[in-house]
Amino acid sequence: MNKQILLEALGKYQRWFVENKTQAMLEHRECEELAIQARSFTREVLLNMSEDQLYDYIAPLWAMAMWGNKHYQIDNIIEANGMDLLRKQFANLVYGTSPIEKRWDEFRSKVKGIGPAIMSELLCKTYPDLFLLWNKKTYNGFSALEVANLPRFEARLNGHKYSRLCEIGKQIISEIKCSENMIVTDMLTLNSFIWQELQEETKESAATSKQKDKELLPTSTKEATFIHNDIRDKVAEIGRCLGFRAEVEKRVADGAVVDAVWEVTIGNMGRVIYVFEVQTAGSIDSLILNLMKSKNNKAVQGIVAVTDQKQIERIKREIAALSIKDEVRFWDYEEVLKIHESLQFVNESINNLGLVPKGL
Fold this sequence. Notes:
Layout: H1 3-19, H2 21-39, H3 43-48, H4 51-58, H5 70-81, H6 83-95, H7 100-110, H8 116-126, H9 136-144, H10 159-178, H11 187-197, H12 206-215, H13 221-241, E1 245-253, E2 256-266, E3 270-278, H14 285-294, E4 300-307, H15 309-318, E5 328-332, H16 333-351
Parallel strand pairs: 3-4, 4-5
Antiparallel strand pairs: 1-2, 2-3
């Protein structure tokens, strides 16, 4: 961490806070009110919450800002997981007694459609002295402070890495307190500081760029599962942003349960379905078999293999003699993450215009 950059940014933030005190205090109060609301969901409340209470719990989160119709997205989360699982996993993530590394990994492995941004925001608002809010803006801020070995894509953010980032956040808070700053006192106010002062794009070195190219290559079975599930969920979310009905782990034909589908009804044509299979590691046979079987459903108009560039070439070789060789489309999953990130920015910007009333 570059302490000089931190102190310079902190000085700018203090001046901005003084010069814009009314706005700054309003934002601080709104932030604290949202945190108080999150803390009102005790372990007992989470274990017994209704669907409406789940909406009240996660709809106000900054991580949900990309969704204009939050009810639609939360309904999809409920459909994909079931309320029993969601109650248990939210209660364990936030109030469990085992180490955060274990609770984090269990949540990520069992819950569909909810990623590190929502998870870390709930943890940060509940325990602002212990847990860091992690998203693209936090990544930008830590990069500006020259913190090394940051996970560019949240697909790689397992419990161990999240715990390490929280420790770095605590170190930053300690440095800020040494400067006798009274504004940034915990990781929730650290988040506001990062958003305000540390969002300038930094030039990447060739080594950093090369590291990012390799970042989505899993190094363990658990990591491969996390990356697979994150890509799967983001493919579905991209579909919803584009107006499709999107689902994960959907049965589309006998023996074919695919990772994600986009579906739309077009006039007299009926249903049109696009099928996506995600491959992060291991044998590609099941991916090919699922894509072949899915074509038995006449509504399936497109089949897409989502993987990295190296495996794309492997799949092309494997299907060269098969009937689907000219039908399979390929999508590099780093592009999936970049597209999702761009759509998130676009949707958040449009939603901030307030054209759609809150609560819809």
